[in-house]
Specification:
alpha+beta; 13-stranded mixed sheet; 6 helices; about 35% strand; GNAT_dom; EC 2.3.1.-; transferase; acyltransferase activity; GNAT family N-acetyltransferase
Amino acid sequence: MDPKTYPSHPAEQATLVTRVAYGQWHALEDDLVVGRGHVQHRPEGRLFVSVDAWHDTAFAQLAEAMTAALPAPLHTVVDEADTELTARWRRAGFTVLRREVEYAVPTDPEVTGLRAVVPPPGVTVVPAGQADEGMLREVDRVVRAEVEATVGWRSMPAEVVPRTEGDTIVDPALYAVAATPDAYLGLIRVVRVKRPRIGLLAVRAGERRRGVGRALLAHALGVLHRAGTAEAWAEVDKSNAVASALFRGVGARPVGCTMELVR
């Protein structure tokens, strides 16, 4: 890709912002790179941007060039404790969409207290990769609609968003489900990339407060423990008291808080 240069504003030193490759921008002063901008396309279609710059002017001009070149909405994630970076993004027109607590979740049932947890009567847990795909997609559509009608998907983990119509499952092999002979009542998704992450835990509205979610969590953590994994990770919206209580109740410890901002 040919570089494309964006105009900059006067400053103590002239700052030249250039698009150097697809999804990459550089801020230059006297041929020295003083800032870099990147864009990431998430699998579900959202665009996430990041900027690493030496000073406010370079940051502002990189953010301006990127927002001018990319389609809205644009997202970014910052550590809640990083007030300086948050202020830079706010000045670039970004607002807070959600706050999320990251938990480290132990898998040892002696630590979690989940060894004796079993599903409610008449309910079984179908392990990941063994669920009926049609029934899995149906329960996923139902819980998505229920959440959207109440707290909305903004209360769910950041990577969980509605996909194209009729395609709500990322990978059927990642999901374990709570099942009766006639229907699926809930589901849990664990993704293993760099570290196991609980990306989704949801139960149908009429089946909550029966221990279905706790049984799904016990199953997923037990599988990880038997595979030799000591900890899993999960993100919970800061406003979701029920989910926070569930994870804290099994010994999960908060390890950070992030904010997702959007423009």
